[in-house]
Write a structure and sequence with these properties.
The protein contains four helices and no strands. With 142 residues, the chain is mainly alpha-helical. α1 runs antiparallel to α2. The mean pLDDT is 81.
């Protein structure tokens, strides 16, 4: 762009001095108009360069939408990674608990194992009874 402006100014120099004829005046006017247009365009481009505004408004909107979509995908990936880690920890904890339970039940005698199983079943039934009672209370309150 600078080169074009310099060329126009170089052409205008000799013509400005010889602006006697109408033809020369017309050429000078045309070249001055081109120079003004080129200078204005250069200013616009420099302003865009300084502001780093290279995209059209439509492309800028598309870029923002893509950025938002990428942020959403990143958030989902982070959530899934956390959920996967939590699930793996729960599985490991459950496996350790199952091994500990199996080890303890092997150490128990038959009568102790039956007693422990009976106590477990009573606790399970009592828990379910409490759930039913609480559900009935909630239904009564609604």
């Amino acid at each position: 762009m600078s080169l074009a402006i310099e060329e126009l100014e170089a052409e205008l120099g000799p013509l400005r001095g010889a602006a006697d004829s109408s033809r020369a005046k017309a050429e000078v006017a045309a070249l001055e108009e081109q120079l003004a247009s080129a200078s204005a365009r250069r200013s616009q481009l420099q302003a865009k360069l300084d502001a780093q505004d290279f995209l059209t408004p439509e492309d800028d909107g598309v870029l923002r939408e893509l950025d938002d979509a990428a942020d959403t995908v990143d958030a989902e990936l982070e959530y899934l990674a956390e959920a996967s880690t939590a699930a793996a920890a729960a599985v490991a904890e459950g496996a350790e608990a199952a091994q500990a339970f199996a080890r303890r039940t092997r150490e128990l005698g038959l009568n102790d194992a039956r007693g422990l199983l009976g106590h477990y079943m009573e606790t399970l039934v009592a828990g379910r009874d409490r759930e039913r009672l609480n559900a009935a209370k909630v239904a009564g309150l609604e």
